Amino acid sequence: MPKITFPRMGESWRTFKMLLEDLGNEVVPPPRPSKRTLDLGVRYSPEFACFPLKILMGTYLETIEMGADTIVTTGGVGPCRAGEYAMLHHNILKDLGHEVRMIVFEPPRLYPFNFIKNVWALNRARVSIRGIIALVKRAWRKLQALDNAEKLSHIVRPREINRGTTSRVYRKVLEWIDQAYTTEQIIEAEAAALEALRSVPQNPEREVLKVGIVGEIYVLLEPASNLEIEETLGNLGVEVERSMFLTGWTRDNTWNETIEGLTVKEAAAPYLPELVGGHGRDSIGNTVLYAKRGFDGVIQLAPFTCIPEIVARTILTRVSRDHDIPVLTFFLDEQTGKAGMTTRLEAFVDLLSRKKRASRRIVTLTG
Amino acid sequence: MTVKVGIPSALLYFLYYPMWQAFFNELGIQVVTSGRTTKNILDKGVREALADACVPIKLFFGHVMAIKDKVDYLFIPRVVCLNRKTVYCPKFLGLPDMIRHAVENVPPIIDVRIDTRKGCLPLLKAYVEIGSFFGAGRRASVRAYFKARKTHMRYNKLLRKGYSPDEAMSILKNPGIKPVRQPGANLRFAVLGYPYAIYDSFISVNLLGKLRRLGVSVLTAENIHPFLLALQKNCNLPKRLFWTFSDMALKAAHFLFKQGRIDGVLHLTAFGCGPDSLLNKFIELEAKKHRNIPFMTLMIDEHTGEAGMTTRLEAFVDMVRRRKEALACRR
């Protein structure tokens, strides 16, 4: 029986593991990217490939050691590099002498046949089509539960009284959601998780800054790649809203474009009317939306040498000036250190709170 | 006074300038270029562009800075796709927006979107749209387009014969005079990479000239007939590379390795170039299968020095030459 693995993106692996096991596969869950993952990835990837490619390379090598022989991943139709990842990973792994199978999911809208073929290959339990749909629905519900818990943790963390409580509770509730199997259990676990997070002792008086996070999807979703920026910001007393969650992204990119997706596109249109691949346009659109919603600042996260985000960064300078919203960019790679990042974040948060206080003073003077 | 349109001499300039010039001239519009790259232009670009951008993009910024005050319009078309299959690097797609929003006081930018994947006669329509910017009628634009296309084909033919863009452009201007080529090359190298890096002799630290001086004749992807490249299909990959230039370079590499009539392959890449990070690995993996043809990667950025480049090239050429002589003796 083949042993299947897949890329790790935040906590979503819990869902994919459940789904693949339900379809009758043996799963090797990808471990959390560690120093060793990075070392392996950096050693065997091209030097200037972007950071996610290196982390995935390392993850694949680690899971292959653990016995995986089939990799499920996504493709893409460009012009972002991520669409070619699977091909390069496969060739490098072959060059290293690992005979693995790659199952690459292309956008089902454009390649329906590829989609059906892949689902068939993964469906070892020969579940009926109706059964598959039910399984996917349940997995989707679980993904939503995971995302909702994470979103709430971002709101609670800056207001907690004892530092670290939220993170501790969050880690605990993840296990609850992970254990839930049927849809009812998932809903129940989600409710319990949200309740547990809400009951973290909080200080409602505390002045909290609001910062939006935009950028490339992988470094946004995998905390190990962005050095847990959300936790760091939360501990600095900042409420974080991330522009991208797996549940939101999949909806925008599989069947229909939601109203939400359209508004991001519309918001970006005066600055960048063209799709430049990756999430370059979304970064601009979301920054505009955050500014309109009165956020205090925006942080852009991108892998080093990420082409779409470089285009976006060049234009964000103007967006920042037009909408009077400070933007801080991190180009992340294996050299990025946590201490340096924290220092820059502290300085940024300091600037934001000063700006906020200054603007309030003006309001009280005039009002 | 006639309208002046500025075309920065960087990026797509090396492949499409003769066509664009012919088109604008036919409509009675004066074309101004920023000329050859100089230290000054590069410095301006480095100062103006984002530090994380690749050097060709920085150079483009520099060229824009050099001409923006001398012209009424800047011609920076948003070239998305020209062959119905591959697109250009994301930086090309966002180029007009990057210039518009990052450079102060730019003249109006003509950023007509050119994408041949949609509609019928998309190229012709795009050129009619360009013409309409200057009040040219449909008929005049169409006539100018066909004339420009003829020039483009003549230009491509010259490139295929082995002339560099500079030489080919001067031949187009004065058909009588052909540049003399010094004989005596006994090695043949393929130089793969993007036209805007290879042919810009300033940024490539005169790579082609140096090779010629070392007695090496050079073959680039532009010298190979597109038909031969198209025969390479997807180069044994499940999917083609998305980007036009990278796709061409990879196909050229496969073709040349298979044909085996070259003595060495150089891949010229710019620091931080996104597509190249993948392309280079694919060429390297292919080169591993053809151990009789040495392969080297050269990386350039705005700090590349003349001396370092010369040393590496000399060492590589010496190595290849000695190897060739040794093999000849053994036979």
UniProtKB/TrEMBL annotation, chain A:
Gene3D superfamilies: 3.40.50.11900
InterPro entries per the UniProt record, alphabetical: Dehydratase_Activator_Redct (IPR051805)
Name of the featured protein: Uncharacterized protein conserved in bacteria
From TrEMBL, chain B:
Pfam family, one: DUF2229
InterPro entries: CoA_activase_DUF2229, Dehydratase_Activator_Redct, FldB/FldC_alpha/beta
Highest taxon of the lineage: Bacteria
Domain DUF2229: 4-224
Protein name stated in the entry: Uncharacterized protein conserved in bacteria
Species this protein is from: Pelotomaculum thermopropionicum (strain DSM 13744 / JCM 10971 / SI)
